[in-house]
Amino acid sequence: MDIRDALPYDKPALRDVARRSLEASYPLDPTTITAAVDEWYAKETLDERVQQDKQLLLVAEQNEQVVGFADAEQTGESTAELYWLHVDPAYRTESYGERLFEKVRATFENRGVPNLLGRVLAVNTAGGGFYERHGMEKVGEETVDIDGTSYAQEIYAEGDTDAEALHVDGTTVYIDHTATESGSLGQFHLVYAEEDGEHYGYWCAKCESLANAMDAMGRIQCDGCGNTRKPTRWDAAYL
């Protein structure tokens, strides 16, 4: 098995693997899956991601056939997110997923990015188990909308979190300084209702305030300084 950087000509294979992986892993309507794959892996989108320095798109090959891929991005100064880890269902009894995951983690560590986050829909229990087997733990939940339907999404992180208590309207919430995401003016830190609990919102590092408002496009925006959280793809789906 070979693991290499994805190239523009891999687009048809990536779309095919993603479609089969989603169909095997999620109780989603086939039309929804097709629309998602068409949006996330359109030629222009793939070309853009291959060329960006903070993106990491790796493919696993067996006899020159793409059988899996990992799609990740550096989203903060010290944080990266694994958006997708897909393996063709016909090859899931082998170690392709594990090898891709370890390559993603090692690549970001070599870049000086020590914290890796992963997101997975709660209905994909095997995906959560995969993260846990690789030393990650569930640190929160949020809700995502997919084709008009709301789904619970679990957030996983590596090791212990560095949580700072914050008192808001008589309630204690916790800022996780190891979990950051990019914004238009500065970083956002994830905030949880409990130290190990449900996702509460975001802390804007630009003006040091909570940022839970949404703009007209449904993106998180800080009322204090206008910092806007950049959108991310919704899920990583290994199994």
What would you note in describing this structure?
The protein is of the alpha+beta class and 239 residues long. It has helices at 11-25, 30-40, 43-51, 96-110, 125-133; strands at residues 2-5, 55-62, 65-74, 79-87, 115-121, 136-146, 149-158, 163-168, 171-181, 188-192, 199-204, 209-210, 213-214, 220-221. The strands form three sheets. It has a seven-stranded mixed β-sheet, with helices on both faces. A five-stranded antiparallel β-sheet has the order 8-9-10-11-12, with no helix packed on it. A two-stranded antiparallel ribbon has the order 13-14. β10 (188-192) and β11 form a beta hairpin. α1 packs antiparallel against α2. The longest helix is centred in the first third of the chain and has 15 residues, at 11-25. The radius of gyration is 18 Å and the shape is globular. Residues 234-239 have low confidence and may be disordered.
Secondary-structure blueprint:
Elements: E1 2-5, H1 11-25, H2 30-40, H3 43-51, E2 55-62, E3 65-74, E4 79-87, H4 96-110, E5 115-121, H5 125-133, E6 136-146, E7 149-158, E8 163-168, E9 171-181, E10 188-192, E11 199-204, E12 209-210, E13 213-214, E14 220-221
Parallel strand pairs: 4-5
Antiparallel strand pairs: 1-2, 2-3, 3-4, 5-7, 6-7, 8-9, 9-10, 10-11, 11-12, 13-14
Helix pairs in contact: 1-2
EC number: 2.3.1.-
Keywords: Acyltransferase, Transferase
GO molecular function: acyltransferase activity
